Amino acid sequence: MPEIEIRNNPGFLSFLRKITEISLTGFVWGIWLYLLLPIINILLWVVGISSIYTEVFEKVGYLEFFKLIQKMGWVVLIAFIVFRGWGYYNYRRFGKRNKRSSFEEYRQVDLASYFKITPEEVEQLTSEKEVPWPPVQ
Protein backbone atom coordinates (compact mmCIF):
# COMPACT_ATOMS: atom_id res chain seq x y z
CA MET A 1 0.00 0.00 0.00
CA PRO A 2 1.50 3.36 -0.94
CA GLU A 3 2.37 5.84 1.76
CA ILE A 4 0.11 8.86 2.13
CA GLU A 5 2.05 12.08 2.14
CA ILE A 6 0.64 14.63 4.55
CA ARG A 7 1.67 18.20 3.94
CA ASN A 8 1.23 20.66 6.75
CA ASN A 9 1.52 24.22 5.46
CA PRO A 10 -0.14 26.55 7.98
CA GLY A 11 0.89 29.51 5.84
CA PHE A 12 -1.74 28.53 3.27
CA LEU A 13 -4.60 28.92 5.77
CA SER A 14 -6.66 32.08 5.54
CA PHE A 15 -7.14 34.35 8.54
CA LEU A 16 -10.83 33.43 8.76
CA ARG A 17 -10.03 29.70 8.77
CA LYS A 18 -7.41 30.13 11.53
CA ILE A 19 -9.86 32.09 13.69
CA THR A 20 -12.61 29.54 13.04
CA GLU A 21 -10.39 26.58 13.95
CA ILE A 22 -9.07 28.29 17.10
CA SER A 23 -12.61 29.24 18.17
CA LEU A 24 -13.97 25.76 17.54
CA THR A 25 -11.06 24.14 19.36
CA GLY A 26 -11.50 26.48 22.33
CA PHE A 27 -15.23 25.83 22.42
CA VAL A 28 -14.78 22.05 22.43
CA TRP A 29 -12.10 22.26 25.14
CA GLY A 30 -14.50 24.41 27.16
CA ILE A 31 -17.22 21.76 26.86
CA TRP A 32 -14.71 19.07 27.82
CA LEU A 33 -13.65 20.99 30.94
CA TYR A 34 -17.30 21.67 31.79
CA LEU A 35 -18.00 17.94 31.61
CA LEU A 36 -15.05 17.30 33.94
CA LEU A 37 -16.38 19.68 36.60
CA PRO A 38 -18.31 16.95 38.50
CA ILE A 39 -15.14 14.86 38.80
CA ILE A 40 -13.15 17.90 39.95
CA ASN A 41 -15.94 18.71 42.39
CA ILE A 42 -15.85 15.17 43.82
CA LEU A 43 -12.08 15.37 44.25
CA LEU A 44 -12.44 18.68 46.06
CA TRP A 45 -15.15 17.16 48.24
CA VAL A 46 -12.86 14.29 49.20
CA VAL A 47 -10.15 16.76 50.15
CA GLY A 48 -12.49 19.01 52.11
CA ILE A 49 -14.71 16.52 53.93
CA SER A 50 -14.81 18.54 57.15
CA SER A 51 -16.05 21.70 55.44
CA ILE A 52 -18.65 19.70 53.52
CA TYR A 53 -19.89 18.15 56.74
CA THR A 54 -20.16 21.60 58.28
CA GLU A 55 -21.95 23.16 55.30
CA VAL A 56 -24.23 20.27 54.43
CA PHE A 57 -25.18 18.53 57.67
CA GLU A 58 -24.76 21.14 60.38
CA LYS A 59 -26.55 23.90 58.46
CA VAL A 60 -29.27 21.52 57.16
CA GLY A 61 -28.04 22.02 53.61
CA TYR A 62 -28.76 18.44 52.65
CA LEU A 63 -32.46 19.25 52.20
CA GLU A 64 -31.55 21.84 49.58
CA PHE A 65 -29.22 19.30 48.01
CA PHE A 66 -32.07 16.77 47.70
CA LYS A 67 -34.33 19.46 46.20
CA LEU A 68 -31.63 20.26 43.65
CA ILE A 69 -31.24 16.57 42.76
CA GLN A 70 -35.02 16.33 42.36
CA LYS A 71 -35.13 19.36 40.03
CA MET A 72 -32.22 18.00 38.00
CA GLY A 73 -34.00 14.66 37.72
CA TRP A 74 -37.11 16.33 36.36
CA VAL A 75 -35.03 18.28 33.83
CA VAL A 76 -33.29 15.11 32.66
CA LEU A 77 -36.61 13.25 32.46
CA ILE A 78 -38.27 16.04 30.45
CA ALA A 79 -35.27 16.22 28.08
CA PHE A 80 -35.39 12.44 27.63
CA ILE A 81 -39.12 12.54 26.87
CA VAL A 82 -38.68 15.37 24.35
CA PHE A 83 -35.80 13.62 22.54
CA ARG A 84 -37.57 10.28 22.59
CA GLY A 85 -40.75 11.87 21.26
CA TRP A 86 -38.82 13.63 18.50
CA GLY A 87 -37.16 10.37 17.54
CA TYR A 88 -40.49 8.56 17.51
CA TYR A 89 -42.01 11.32 15.36
CA ASN A 90 -39.12 11.10 12.89
CA TYR A 91 -39.47 7.33 12.75
CA ARG A 92 -43.22 7.52 12.10
CA ARG A 93 -42.86 10.36 9.59
CA PHE A 94 -39.72 9.36 7.71
CA GLY A 95 -38.60 5.95 8.96
CA LYS A 96 -40.47 3.75 6.54
CA ARG A 97 -39.79 5.81 3.44
CA ASN A 98 -36.92 5.14 1.15
CA LYS A 99 -36.06 8.54 -0.29
CA ARG A 100 -32.76 7.39 -1.70
CA SER A 101 -32.80 7.27 -5.44
CA SER A 102 -31.18 4.17 -6.77
CA PHE A 103 -29.24 4.18 -9.98
CA GLU A 104 -29.87 1.69 -12.69
CA GLU A 105 -27.29 -0.92 -13.40
CA TYR A 106 -25.07 -0.09 -16.33
CA ARG A 107 -23.63 -2.71 -18.55
CA GLN A 108 -20.00 -2.61 -19.49
CA VAL A 109 -20.97 -1.91 -23.09
CA ASP A 110 -22.86 1.22 -22.01
CA LEU A 111 -19.93 2.43 -19.91
CA ALA A 112 -17.51 1.70 -22.72
CA SER A 113 -19.56 3.71 -25.20
CA TYR A 114 -19.94 6.60 -22.73
CA PHE A 115 -16.23 6.84 -21.97
CA LYS A 116 -15.25 5.92 -25.54
CA ILE A 117 -13.17 2.90 -24.59
CA THR A 118 -13.49 -0.80 -25.28
CA PRO A 119 -15.53 -3.14 -23.04
CA GLU A 120 -12.31 -5.05 -22.25
CA GLU A 121 -10.76 -1.86 -20.89
CA VAL A 122 -13.85 -1.24 -18.75
CA GLU A 123 -13.55 -4.73 -17.31
CA GLN A 124 -9.84 -4.22 -16.66
CA LEU A 125 -10.46 -0.84 -14.97
CA THR A 126 -13.23 -2.21 -12.75
CA SER A 127 -11.03 -5.04 -11.57
CA GLU A 128 -8.09 -2.79 -10.60
CA LYS A 129 -7.56 -1.49 -7.10
CA GLU A 130 -6.47 1.97 -8.24
CA VAL A 131 -7.75 3.42 -11.49
CA PRO A 132 -5.55 5.89 -13.36
CA TRP A 133 -7.50 8.80 -14.75
CA PRO A 134 -7.74 9.54 -17.61
CA PRO A 135 -7.48 5.89 -18.63
CA VAL A 136 -4.35 4.95 -20.50
CA GLN A 137 -5.15 4.01 -24.10
How would you portray this structure in words?
The chain is an all-alpha fold. It has a domain at 107-137. It has helices spanning 15-47, 49-58, 62-94, 108-115, 119-127. The relative contact order is 0.03.
Write the layout of secondary structure elements.
Blueprint: H1 15-47, H2 49-58, H3 62-94, H4 108-115, H5 119-127
Helix pairs in contact: 4-5
Binned, the helix content reads 55-70%
Order of helices and strands: HHHHH
**How many strand segments?**
0
- Assembly context of the chains: single chain
Structural class: mainly alpha
Write down the Rg: 30 Å
The fraction of residues in strands falls at under 5%
Which spans have pLDDT < 50 for at least 5 consecutive residues?
none
Amino-to-carboxy terminus distance: 25 Å
- Number of helical stretches of at least 4 residues: 5
| Largest β-sheet summary | none
- Which descriptor suits the 3D outline? elongated
The whole-number mean of residue pLDDT values reads 80
List keywords for this structure.
mainly alpha; 137 residues
